[in-house]
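User: Thanks for the earlier help. One more: Glutamine--tRNA ligase. Can you show the sequence and predicted structure together?

Assistant: Of course, both are below.
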Amino acid sequence: MAEEAKSLNFIEHIIEDDLKEGFNKEGLRFRFPPEPNGYLHIGHASSICLNFGLGEKYNAPVNLRFDDTNPAKEEQAFVDAIKRDVEWLGYKWDEVRYASDYFQQLYDWALVLIKKGKAYVDSQPSEKIAEQKGTPNTPGTESPYRNRSVEENLSLFEQMKNGDFKEGEHVLRAKIDMASSNMLMRDPVMYRILHKAHHRTNTDWCIYPMYDWTHGESDYIEQVSHSFCTLEFAMHRELYNWFLEQVYDPNKVKPKQREFARRNLSHTVVSKRKLLRLVEEGVVKGWDDPRMPTISGLRRRGYTPDSIKNFAKTIGIAKRDNLIDVSLLEFHAREDLNKKAPRIMAVLNPLKVVITNYPENTDEYLEAENNPEEDVLTYRKVPFSREIYIEQEDFREEANRKFFRLKLGGEVRLKNAYIIKAEKAVKDDQGNIVEVHCTYDPLSKSGSGTPESQRKVKGTLHWVSIPHAKEVEVREYDRLFTEAEPDRHKEKDFLEFVNPDSLRIVKGYVEPSVETAKEGDHFQFQRIGYFNVDRDTTHEKLVFNKTVGLRDTWAKIDSK
């Protein structure tokens, strides 16, 4: 019991304490409240896993609620993308809700506040209102319109709703305390005028509620018990509670806001505004570009739902913001794909090898293991012939004793095949090696049980039979930024740190077993890394994305 209590994060402790104090477990309800103004990113994944994970743990409903109060930036396409991402991660929401569902109720409650003398229409420009807010060390100044009569406020607010005024001409503000130490309590704006069509309500409304007014009241309408958000909203909690107090019925659940730390990922950015710049300025090819930290981008690159959920579990829920090295996310991708991805052979930097003593116009099919991590091993047939490709870096004319790959006069084993010996290097007019002639030991076939097959040689190479090879396009991705924190330099634009080598496209060759592979299929290219089939694949051309290498090559680079 003590161990279980110790393993709880501080959010779970809050819930457990509430239950001990008499809160009815049947009243637990959570929500994930994204704004549909962009795609979800890896930072959102922690919030998704937290809220839906709590729902699973306590068998409580979780709403997917879109905070759609800014028609200038929101689109149905973003709503659809968010739904896809949450479903792909494996979570199921209880209901899909929208803040726009509550526009009428929010308006009606705003009228109640006006009638109570707790809200008023301010007719000053936004710059003047901001100036009158004061500073953290000096109190604000009351608006000259703060003491308008209830009747005048009701009339002006109705005209705002009806579209009788221009944008910026009036706002509705809560009347709280212009001397509060919390500047958010200094008569915050509740409504602004926007003459823009909404993706759901079209032009029904000319005024739109602000986040602080909308969020807590939406939680209350949905009877959300615990509302979790990131640390930047900690100062908003006082206002969240003040707004709730104005409409709260003691017979209903009063939502509780609590905050947890944002997790930033190294070598990328997670600000939606900056992600939008990457898209709009053509640095990447859309929100789902495999270099993007969006969930859609990670999915397209080949990350699995489990790898992202395991990453979120590892970094946990904390009270202090932190920068997480992207290598941890890559580790979880490797760990998960190692269990799930079938192995195939692919050559990305080909060098032709001719096995001179292998019969011409002959081939054979060798048995190869699909994945040694499987509980029940399965196998496939791989064609072998006189001419094969190996990687160029796997051959040297001369090499020291630590080079265990192919060299003149030296032997290696071809995986699942035979032992070969390099006899001759063929060069072009510029002196480049274009072909290697080898001989093979026909009695050394892997798994044949002969003494020759059990002979030990230090190197094992992957290969592809040239007559059977399928040509593919391979997109090798690297970190999007050369700096771990590209947006921490206030005097520089974060785009100055874009990695010019974040994408390299090469022509590769793979064994024919993948000919029928479809979008999203995962593979380990043996001795190279993990790859998946991209959506640009056609019947004529297979396109692979490199998800992650077999090892963390950046660890060495960073140490230098």
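User: Great, one quick takeaway?

Assistant: The first helix runs from residue 2 to 7.
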